[in-house]
Amino acid sequence: MCRHTQTSPTLRSGLAADLASRRSAETRRLVLSQRRLPGPLPPGLARWFPALEVLDVSGTGLAALGSELLSLPRLHTLLAKNNRLGGPGSLPKGLAEAPLLGRSLRVLNLSGNRFAELPAALLGLRGLQSLSLGSNRLHSIPPEIQELRSLEFLYLGGNFITSIPPELASLPSLSYLVLCDNKIQSVPPQLAQLHSLRSLSLHNNLLTYLPREILNLVHLEELSLRGNPLVVRFVRDLTYNPPSLQELAGRTIKSRNVSYTPGDLPGNLLRYLHLASNCPNPKCGGVYFDSCVRQIKFVDFCGKYRLPLMHYLCSPECSSPCSSASQSSTSQSESDSEDEAIVAAHRMQKVLLG
């Protein structure tokens, strides 16, 4: 313990001397992630780098940021990932009321720290556009999150969150919401009010259903659901009933192009033959009527849909050319899955509604 108290001042003074030697009125980006910081940000940082806009102190072992942070008038991005922040005094007092930083800060990344709750001081940073608190120890999202009216990106994945507050729907500019790898059991229907939402990541939670209102998110481009009981249940419940003799006969007539005239068959059989659906597998060429194989394909690739899509085949032996979509994201499967997402929108809604 004595050795630590003797060396810490030395390390601190060494860091200050290093930063002082690099002082510049024009430096806008400062990265300190390659070294250990024994304490808070050193006094003088704002004086040495008055134009600083981006500060990266990720992976430095910081347990507190310190009051010097409040003196950086132009700072708009603070990256402090993978540190020891989260205890009392981790954030400087008066952070929310800081006249300069409160207005300038736009991006704050505190992922990989030890926060057990979302700090109240952060909720006063009304200019924040991006907030990341992934891989912390959060158990809830406070309703006051609605105060961050400028927020466009919110990352809270990898925590212990059990519910989503309806107040989250009051963020008018929110476009990207990441809540994956938590313990969330339901989605409030109010989220349908997030009209700017383009990406919603909910994979690896405890969801068993989605509210119908989720379909009102007309600008949603990406929805990730894998690893939820919702998806597992679809896979478990899929069954296949063998076709009847009537269907087998109808399949034979259609697939072999057996010729017939309206006078050859009763009216009910003619109507039945008109109900034939083509198998989506281009290598098959078969048809089905009432009996088909329901198959879930997981479309999961960046920038597109990440959804469990319902796929209909004429028999269990008829493999789809896209059936590996759940195992890989090759360019071919992505292209096929994109086509199906467009063609089978109504089937997608069935799966979403559960």
Automatic annotation (TrEMBL):
**InterPro entries in the record, alphabetically?**
Leu-rich_rpt, Leu-rich_rpt_typical-subtyp, LRR_dom_sf, LRR_domain-containing
Asked whether the UniProt record includes Repeat among its keywords, one would answer yes
Task: Write down a Pfam family by its short name.
Answer: LRR_8
Q: Provide the alphabetized UniProt keywords.
A: Leucine-rich repeat, Repeat
Origin superkingdom: Eukaryota
A GO cellular component entry from the record: cytoplasm
Gene3D superfamilies of this UniProt entry? Ribonuclease Inhibitor (3.80.10.10)
Protein name, as recorded: Leucine rich repeat containing 58
What are the top taxonomic ranks of the organism?
Eukaryota, Metazoa, Chordata, Craniata, Vertebrata
Gene, per the UniProt record: LRRC58
